[in-house]
């Protein structure tokens, strides 16, 4: 869930980035640069990270700032859900990742599932579109929307990808150690609700 200092830093950063993108007046640009510096100071004060790292992660974009989009696949087989073991933290997540420019959400999730698990899938339903800040994810510097799409397997076989070191199906009541930056137990429970009730309407917010 978001914390106030991070929310303030994100909002100040967003305002400054938009101002720098669209302002022509030299004095306004100077003010927006100052706002940007303040947002970076807030991040450094509360994280203890080196300023260069904060700039590269948090303030290296230009143009109007919008939430990033993280897409995850819900693939069920015999009452279990497909998960992959992430190299980055050794924990488990639904296959997926950031949406790539030039690909639709459906095209993105097909690509991600193939790359991370080895399975060929067809997307069949948008299950949920969620705001990360309203769920129990660890504090992160960016604001994310999380898209969950149900897919069915049409080919392929379990195979590790460049970013994964395990592919497995899990029961709802026996989930592994989750990569909480990517998915929470409550979110996976929500996805199982769709397995129990295929007529359930898409969840958003």
Explain what you see.
This protein is an alpha+beta fold. It has helices at 4-22, 26-47, 51-58, 105-117, 185-196; strands at residues 68-77, 80-86, 92-93, 96-98, 119-131, 144-156, 164-170, 203-204. Strands 1, 2, 3, 4, 5, 6, 7 and 8 form an eight-stranded mixed β-sheet that branches. A hairpin with a 5-residue loop joins β2 and β3 (92-93). α1 (4-22) packs antiparallel against α2 and α2 (26-47) packs across α3 (51-58). The mean pLDDT is 91.
Short structural description:
The protein has 205 residues and is α+β, with helices and mostly antiparallel strands.
Please name the defining characteristics of this protein.
alpha+beta, 5 helices, 205 residues
């Amino acid at each position: 869930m978001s914390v106030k200092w991070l929310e303030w830093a994100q909002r100040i950063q967003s305002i400054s980035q938009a101002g720098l993108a669209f302002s022509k007046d030299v004095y306004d640009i100077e003010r927006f640069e100052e706002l940007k510096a303040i947002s970076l100071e807030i991040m450094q004060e509360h994280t203890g990270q080196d300023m260069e790292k904060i700039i590269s992660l948090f303030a290296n974009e230009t143009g109007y700032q919008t939430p990033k989009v993280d897409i995850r696949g819900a693939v069920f087989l015999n009452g279990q859900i497909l998960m992959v073991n992430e190299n980055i933290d050794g924990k488990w997540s639904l296959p997926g990742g950031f949406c790539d420019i030039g690909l639709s959400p459906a095209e993105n999730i097909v690509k991600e599932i193939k790359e991370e698990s080895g399975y060929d899938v067809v997307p069949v339903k948008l299950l949920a579109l969620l705001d990360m800040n309203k769920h129990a994810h660890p504090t992160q510097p960016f604001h994310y929307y999380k898209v969950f799409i149900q897919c069915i397997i049409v080919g392929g076989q379990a195979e590790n990808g460049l970013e994964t070191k395990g592919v497995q199906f899990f029961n709802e009541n026996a989930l592994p150690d989750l990569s909480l930056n990517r998915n929470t137990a409550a979110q996976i429970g929500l996805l199982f609700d769709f397995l129990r009730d295929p007529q359930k309407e898409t969840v958003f917010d």
